[in-house]
Fold Histidine--tRNA ligase.
Amino acid sequence: MSDAKIRRPRAETPKGFRDYFGTEVTQRKAMLDKIAEVYHRYGFDPLETSAVETVESLGKFLPDVDRPNEGVFAWQEDEADWLALRYDLTAPLARVAAQYRNDLPSPYRRYAMGPVWRNEKPGPGRFRQFYQCDADTVGAPSVAADAEICAMLADALEAAGIERGDYVVKVNNRKVLDGVLDFIGVGSDDPNRPAIMRTIDKYDKVGEDGVLELLTTGRRDASGAFIDGVGLHLQSAQSIVQYLTQKSVIGGDELNERRLASMRQAVGDSAVGNEGIDELELMVSLLSTQGYEADRVCVDSSVVRGLGYYTGPVYEAELTFQITDEKGRPRNFGSVAGGGRYDDLVKRFTGQSVPATGVSIGVDRLLAALHAKGRISTDITGPVVVTVMDRDRMADYMGMVTDLRNARIRAEVYLGNPKNFGNQLKYADKRNSPVAIIQGGNEAEAGTVILKDLILGAKIAQNATLEEWKDRPAQVEVPRAELVAAVRRMLDQN
């Protein structure tokens, strides 16, 4: 068959997915290592679960999803079982907690980091595969566990590079919202209740008026499409919106008490609503005692969380600084993490209530935030490149790179076609290499090597004057025995 008739696959990334190259992977790992150090300090252990779970195990917990397989990448393994890629790291934890409940300590503290997949419509900055970083405590019924998660999240953000004052961890309680809905006559068995919850969770995106429209008759979005409303009476919808706009700040006791009192008015005599406020008051006390005041953690009635498995305290980490959007308009960066208490998730497997609480960080969004604040360097230094002047002396070049690696210096030998030496230097430049090592026949006979400072050379090329670097040669010749020491000196200068 001729080449013209061969059907070749298109070399393109599937829609909604992306590839991550060296710098991005390195930056992500560095950030996650800092977060993991905080989690480890709090006593949490790492856990890696399978990327594939049964659809039954995952459950129906994605927001805006009514059918079991919608929103996930699923396939039928046999006539009985459907499998799917995990859509978060919490549902697999519930399965692990149930499967290994006789072996794990209780409470069980774990953190997990890895990709998740959602079969949703992709858009700008919205991908079907993305990274999450979770930390959860399973088996602790006290809201002290929730307070600890919030404190740990604040510490993790600061360790990653988000300065105090550029973020706030917002806390609420789903029981309080349940109390509000009970108070206005929307009971737990009301079929509209899940839709109401999802609508309320859009408060940050559509604002007060948008939520009011969506709770009642509907609204037209920016694209012109009309979104049907839930159908609540206007007075009931207004009561919900009034609750969402109440905010209480941890720190100033008088203000805090006044705001919590307003929340009690919103739930009336609802037992579950008042229980939620009691839990918030305890969290306020515990966090304040540890020094987490209004500049780090605050109570915010607008925090709802869209996933259906939350049963108590819920929280989000919001970055408060502004960025410029694609149209040049200033806007707040927004949320980078969220979580809460989900006491019934493990119960699906065991039939017994198992308290649990945890938080998930959106890794890609947090990385984007660090870039926006200039907290991540985009200048990633590549390896030292040992060039090849003589194919027959490859063992000598391999010896040089081995010496450098043994000294914990990142290095590689050029393994392409060595015939054109200029191409080797172009390769070193593309690799962002700081130093190129050269040894031709003359240098080998003399027992020396040439070190070419590529960073200095690039600086000289970009500037008309050499005053700043006139005492620093861009190329030096040193004895072969001094190779490692000379390279380290050159790296330290840059």
Remarks:
- The longest helix spans residues 22-41.
